[in-house]
Amino acid sequence: MKKALLVTRVSGFIPQHEMNNVRILQKMGYEVHYATDLNNVVYGKDNSRLENTGIITHQIDFVRSPFSSGVKKSYLQLKQLMLSEKFDLIHCHMPMSGVITRLAAQKARKESGRSVPVLYTAHGFHFFNGAPLKNWLYYPVERYLARYTDRLILINHEDYKRGQGFHVRGRAEYVPGIGIKLPDDSCPQNMDMAERAEYIYSITGRNITPDTKILVSIGELSKNKNHILLVEMMAELMDLNIICIIGGSGSEETAIRRKIQELHLEKKVFLAGYINDVSGLLSASDCFILSSFREGLPVVVMEAMAAGLPVIAGRIRGVTDLIEHAKGGYLVQSFEPEDFAVKVRRMFTEKDRKSAVPRDIRREQMGRWNMERVKKFSRDVVEKRMWDIYKGVQKN
Fold first, then answer.
1. pLDDT at position 186, please?
2. At 271, phi and psi to the nearest 5?
């Protein structure tokens, strides 16, 4: 049986984002292996989602910093795994594991004499238009490693345009994300008032009224996701009957809770922890909001679009592939809390200056526009692209 190796630096990434690719490879006759740091689960609570998937796991002691002495150890572990298992295809993800995997695969190729195709999906280059100078330190690394990459898979148009200028051993490919499952019908899956109130109470402990508006943001509580901005934004909206629910866990939770207390927003901003029922929270909400500094092609925004929600987000790479300003929501030019607050006010209190459309109808129109737009990023579209890519690199 042919063997395929998937590699990520931290565990949970494959069951969270790449199970469609796992199923494609298995249908193509591959035995799928997964190399990761099984002791560092970032996506999900544990490794239980890997059970009964047919995936064979391998522990690799990945480190986050390229300057760590542990880099050599993970490189040697990966190279030895490649030499012993004799994989027929390698597909890596995430920046650090992407670097180490391609270097190890190139060394294993030389030592074994076997030409194994190596694919790398960049889920958003660290370097992008407007990125800090330090982020561009990754640019020469990615450009160099392109020579060891048979397919460089890029998920937004800015990265794809840049990647086409690299000297890729094979070629650069545009794939519209990881593919999301669309609802079975074309209507937003909204809860009725009683269900909504009960659901929100179960998360926040707060009773809401029918006219309470729910802003929701879901993502890892990290500095890049920038949830502190949402807390500061809500301090500008104390006069409105709006609450903000932030779903997710991560290293910034303590700092976010401290900011909520500092601004006396305990009744306005709620941390809901890791969200298992994303679709349920989205269906109970009125608008999705994203404050990230950097994204590749944010899955949670696509999920919000599929749920029929309008979106407020920074005008950043990846988001601009998804949301068109004033059609699917509002894009914010800066990362100032006041500027985000202005867009929230416009979403919930102001009529459209050009068409005088009532705000409730405008939000519904934006949601429906998003539901149509997100079809371009559906699971069916992405699976067809990935099937063709895998088929194009597999050995006869």
1. 54
2. -95, 120
Model pTM score:
0.90
Q: How far is CA 15 from CA 64, 220, 313, 363, in A?
A: 20, 16, 27, 33
Q: Which residue range(s) make up the domain with 343?
A: 193-377
Question: Are 86 and 114 found together in one domain?
Answer: yes
Per-state percent for the chain, helix, strand, coil, to nearest 5: 45, 20, 40
Question: By the 8 A CB rule, do 302 and 378 touch?
Answer: no
* 186 occurs within a structural domain: no
On whether both 370 and 388 belong to a single domain, the answer is no
User: Helices 359-373 and 299-306 sit at what angle, rounded to 10 degrees?
Assistant: 120
- Mean pLDDT, the chain, whole residue set: 94
**Separation CA 143–CA 276 (nearest Å):** 38
| DSSP code string of 167-184 | --SSEEEE--SS-BPPPS
Span 300-351, pLDDT tens digits: 999 999 999 999 999 999 999 999 999 999 999 999 999 999 999 999 997 6
CATH number at residue 6: 3.40.50.2000
Strands 242-247 and 213-218, bridge-based pairing? parallel
**Count of domains in the chain?**
2
Question: Could you tell me the pLDDT band of residue 90, with boundaries at 50, 70 and 90?
Answer: very high
355 with 289, same domain: the answer is yes
One domain for residues 172 and 201: no
Residue 298's pLDDT band, with cuts at 50, 70 and 90, is: very high
The residue type at 12: G
Query: Do residues 356 and 301 make contact, with C-beta atoms less than 8 angstroms apart?
Result: no
For residue 184, is it within any domain? no
Do both 314 and 363 map to the same domain?
A: yes
C-alpha triplet 294, 296, 299: angle, nearest 5°: 105
Residue 396 — very low, low, confident or very high, per pLDDT cuts 50/70/90? very low
